[in-house]
Amino acid sequence: MQFPHIDPVFLSIGPLQFRWYGLMYVLSFIFTYFIIRSESLRKELPLTKDDVADLVFYGAMGVVLGGRLGYILFYNLTFYINNPLKLFAVWEGGMSFHGGFLGVVVAFLIYAKRKNISFFTIIDIAALCAPVGLGFGRIGNFINGELYGRATDLPWGIIFPGSDGLPRHPSQLYEAFLEGLTLFIAVRFMSRKTDLTGVAAWTFCAGYGLFRFTVEFFRQPDAQIGFLFGGISMGQILSLPMFMAGISMVVFLINRKSKS
């Protein structure tokens, strides 16, 4: 199946260009605002509309700065050392979820301290928002024809523009379904199933680690890195500890409550 070329710029007004990738970020932040607002009311947190807007801003900065720095350090350090001006070309792609995850953690630690609110209470709410952003982000990757999968002879294999002409797994859509929709349902279920602080956050951590590790078997590894340690990708190396830590902490928190 030949994938039609889609211009990464969906709207131009004079010198201004609006890109699909940027639109996915905007949609993510809008949905994030309303999810946080809804959850803060449900949990009766002392967060005004301005506080929620500030929290979204902190999260956005964590995602963008952490995601960019993570990609540079984990995936393509040599390239950016040789091309320093490309550090700021985020519209060309080059964002790491694991870097963005760490960036959000740092940003929310700062926010929690400033507002004198439990860090894990905030992270539990953010865990509901993250799958939404991941889902939109992977759709953006699909539209851009980037981060596609390995070659396949399955009937839904897609020939992406700029690739080697082989049909490939639309792994971006696999990730949008698993890391986006499925993970959102799982985290929401756990957040409603128990009132234990931290369970939703650790459920997200475990779920993302599992889904990302699985999809990496279908995803083409970054060309500048390739496979590591007998066929394992960098994404799998970074995701496996997330799954192990997440599942361990969910079990620990639930067992601790049952014993008490």
The number of E-state strands comes to 2
Q: How is the main sheet built?
A: 2 strands, antiparallel
Order of helices and strands: EEHHHHHHHH
- Give the strand order of the largest sheet, numbering strands 1, 2, ... along the chain: 1-2
User: Which runs of at least 5 residues are low in confidence (pLDDT < 50)?
Assistant: none
Distance between the termini: 57 Å
Spatial extent as radius of gyration: 19 Å
List the total number of helices: 8
Q: What's the mean pLDDT score?
A: 88
Strand content is: under 5%
Describe the structure using short key phrases:
260 residues; two-stranded antiparallel sheet; globular
Structural commentary:
- Helix content is 64%, strand content 3%.
- With 260 residues, the protein is mainly α.
- It has one domain.
- It has a two-stranded antiparallel sheet.
- Helix 1 (20-42) packs antiparallel against helix 5 (119-144) and helix 7 (199-215) packs antiparallel against helix 8.
- The protein is globular, with a radius of gyration of 19 Å.
- It starts with 8 loop residues before the first strand and ends with a helix.
- The mean pLDDT is 88.
Write a brief caption for the model:
The protein has 260 residues and is mostly helical. It has eight helices and two strands. The mean pLDDT is 88.
Element layout with pairings:
Blueprint: E1 9-13, E2 16-19, H1 20-42, H2 49-75, H3 77-82, H4 97-115, H5 119-144, H6 171-193, H7 199-215, H8 234-259
Antiparallel strand pairs: 1-2
Helix pairs in contact: 1-2, 1-5, 2-4, 4-5, 5-6, 5-7, 6-7, 7-8
